[in-house]
Every structure is written in C-alpha cells, then in structure tokens.
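# nightly structure sweep
# worker-07 picked up a monomer target from the shared queue
# config: single-sequence mode, recycle default, output format = structure tokens
# input follows
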Amino acid sequence: MAGLLVYLRFLIRRERLSSSLWIILSLVFTAGLVYVYPSLFEDQVNMRDMLDLMTSPAMLALMGPAYDTESLTVMMLYSGEISIFVMVSLAVMNIFFVVRHTRNDEELGRLEMISSLPVGRVTTATATFLLAVLVNLLIALPTVLAIVIIQVEGTTLMGAVAYTLAIFSVGLFFAAVALLTAQLFSTARGASGGALMVLGLAYIIRAYGDMTGSLLSATPPIGLGLQSFAFLSDRLWPSLVNLALALLIAGLALLVCARRDLGQGVLPARPGRSQASTALLSSLGLTWQLTRNLVMVWSLVLFLTAALYGSVIGSITDFVSTNPLYLQIVAGGIDAASTLTDGYTALLFLIMTLLSVIPVINITNHVLSEEKHGRLEALLSRSVDRRRLLLDSILIAFLVSVCAQLICAFGMYVAAAPSGLVDLQTLLMASLVYLPAIWVFIGIGVMLTGLAPRLSFLIWVYYGYAFVIVYIGRMFALPKWLPRTVPFGNVPQIPVDDFSLLPLVVLSVIAVALCAIGLWGFKQRDIQ
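# output follows
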C-alpha cells in the first residue's frame, strides 16, 4: 500500500499540468456553453423546432435519442445535444491518459526501473487507474456545481448529477478499456488503437440502434449513458451499470497484469519475416511499415462512419414531408428533399473531415514519436538524411489524407446511392475540397517537429479549437471572422456553397510554407 501511494503521488506530479489543463478547459467549456445556451431559443416554439430537428435520422445517429416530452426545457435540449460529444472527448482523454502511464512507460523501459524497487506487480496499473478516477472526479464535481450555480431553465440538482454521472461513467469505462488493451498489446500504438477501436464501434452500434429504434440504442457505454435522460427522467441506473462494467474490466486488466511478463502483451507480436522485404531498404518503406496498421484501422472506421451517415439520406424525403417546420422553410417534394440533402451532405463531410485529420496528425508526428522513444538516433547514425525521414512522413500523411477523403465519399455513396438523392461526382467534390485544410494541419505538425518539438501538443489544442469553432460554433451567432481562424472555416461547403478556388490555393500555399519551415528547422536543431 505504501508503494502504491508513493507511485500515485509521483503520477500526480507528472500530471499536474496536463490534467489541470483538461479540468480547467472542461469547466470553462461547460460553464460557458450552459450560460449562452438559452440565447439560442427565443421561446418554446424555437425549442420545439430544435427538438423536431433532433428527431431526424441524421441527428439521431449523430447525437443520440431525442427527449420525448411536452414540457421541454433548455437544459433538456442541452443535455440531448451536448452529452455525446463530451462523452467521446472524455473517453479519448482517458484512453491516452491510461496508455501513456502504462504501456507507453513500459515500452520506454521506465516501468522496468520502477519494478526494481519494492513495489507490487500491479502497482503502476492500479495507481494509473486510481488517478484516472481522481481526474474524472475533478472534472465531474465542478461540472455539477457550475450547472447548479448558473441555473438555466430546467436546471435541477438531480438533473445535474444524472448528466455528470453519465459522462463520468463513460470516461471511466474507457479508462478501464485502455487499461485492459495496455495488457493485451505489446506497443502503445496497439493499446491506444485497440481502445479507440472499441470507442468507434460503441459509437457506430449506438448510432445504428438510435436510427432503427432497436435495443442497440442502449449498448454500453455510450448508448447506455445516453439513456440517463438528464433533466427529464434523471435515471442513475444506466451510469451505475457503466461504472460496474468499468470496475469489472479494470479488475480483469489487473488480473492479466499480475500474470503477464513485463514488456510483453498477452497477444504476442506477430513474428517478422526471416528476411526483410525490399521495401524496408528505404526510409519511406520503413515509415509505411510502422504506420500502416494505423492507416488500415482508420480507413475502416471512416468507411463505416460514412456508410452509416449515408444510410440516413434516403429517409430525408419522409422526414421533410412529415415535418411542418421544413415544409414552411422549403416547398415540399423532391426540391425540398434535395435542399435538405445538400445541407446534410455539407455537414456530414465536415464531420468526417474532422475525423480524417486525426490519423493524418498521428502520421505527421511519427518522426517526433520515434525521436522521443530514442529510435531515431539509430536511423540517423546510418547514411540517412534527416530531412528525408521527415519528408517520408509528410508524403505518407499527404497520401493518407487523399485516400481518407475518397473513402468518405465512396462510403457515403455506397449507402446513399439507392435513395437517388446524391451523385458520386458531388460527393467527391464535397469531400476533396477539404484537402487543403487537412494539409495545413500537416504543415503545423511539421513546423512544430522542426522548431518546437516540446510544443507538439499544440497541434491537438488547435485541432480541438477548430472542432469547437466549426462544429459546436454552428449553434451560435459567431462573428464572421472567427471561423476564418481555422482552415475548415475557409473551405466552401459543397454542395451548399459554390466552388471557389482562391481559398484552397491560399491554404495549400500556407501548408507548403509551414512544411518548408519545419524541414529547415529539423535540419538545424539537435536530436533530443
């Protein structure tokens, strides 16, 4: 027990900055959004219109089940629209948090030094999970207080507890999943990738269940957490079930940790060839070998997500014909359905592009990751130009960005083609038009790698800012200049907007300039 407390204090010291940042940002996000949310609705009519929109197939897939009540309040709409995004964000935070302090430390050899001290075999894993519980509690408790203090229409203490407990339970569930995948896989990439795959599957299964009205809508943990219906029914049992499952998974992970060999995963690493392939004779081939699993997993996730969203387009005609609000806005019939289809298409490609950026950023940061793990020095000791290594990552990230957007377009077309409301050419244009915006993120990653490797986390901060501005910000009357501060805000949203070449050229030039600066800096600086 003494060793556990000492190691827990050590982890708290390591996490005092990054976790504090997460806690503060979570509190600011919740308090700010709850405070301004009532300004979105003038009266009950506007709120009812919003609820009608949330019952559309696409919105059910995106945000989860809508509230079914006559006495609608602002906090009901807030919980129904925002809960799932906070759940996913907290799940991702917990996955990377747990993997960083378990499998990543083990891969770097840090846990071997700690194991030489008088500590138990499961001390590090137990301390990591306990700290994850603590961090999630420090996010949850101020959230409850912020909601109660601001007192928006419909706020109740029990509703705030139900809303926060649902989010807390989902975050802790994925902390436990990450703890288990850290025991199953022998690399940090495999552990985080496995946990993220579980997250993606949970989201897709839940979305399909909400669209079809089946029991899959309540699939743990996300679907089950959304069944809390905070500020309406205030159910606590779905969150308690999630917490029980989280403890069960964490217990299983600790049991596996106590029995496996240090440095190894339960799933054995696939043995390599007796002779290396010719592709490994080049640095480009080596980079692809190390990143291809990431590319394949994300390709599958993007295709399934695009197909899922594409499958709802065929039901838009029925939705328009039965919804008085949309019949007022657009004259009914095929033209109305087509107009609504265009709006959904533009929104869905924005969402899928935000997903496509994640693997691109990871590949761009590949060289920096190898440097942090101490493997880059071995490569540079041979006749390998360091700029060539970085160029290889840039080239693969560039190709992956193109392939990812093509996969999104074809995935949506495969599912939506039977409806006859979309054509492949429009979908390809709506998808590929975002490529220069993705390339800007490649440029930012390369620039940080070359000039400020210790600040490489800023690309994720900027990505989070971009997500909030272009997606969450769509609900608010933002100043026109604010979306322009992120690459996606400068891209014409086809098929709603007309195609414009100039902003795409400007974004491409910015991306090339950032890459050039990063390559120059990487050539000049010392390897860590």
